[in-house]
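Sequence, structure tokens quoted for completeness.
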Amino acid sequence: MDLSEVIDELANSTLAVTRRGQPVLAANGVWSDGSSTSLAPTGVMYPATPEDVELLPDGRRGGRAVVFLSKVALQPPNAPGNAAGGVQGDTFVYQGESFEVLHVEPWSEYGFWRSIAVRAGQ
């Protein structure tokens, strides 16, 4: 059952997401940030439940966490396909606070992606 149309109907947030690319090693041996791209997915945002927070890595479970349902897959740190590693998760600002995406799971049977993010720097 594809519920992606329901996500469109209930959408309460459009995010300005920043996706950072792979770090680049310069000829002088110094690492620099990779290029970044911007996304603007629309979806449903709500506070994370205790069960959602359990899916996060140890040490990142304290503080404010949110869940974002969208047709667009956000990227957690070191997402599959980034074999070199070192890639930061997508970041966005919600209600004046910066968040970092830490967990993403496909809910493709329903037509959307479920992302869990925590306030950056916590």
User: Anything to note?
Assistant: The mean pLDDT is 83.
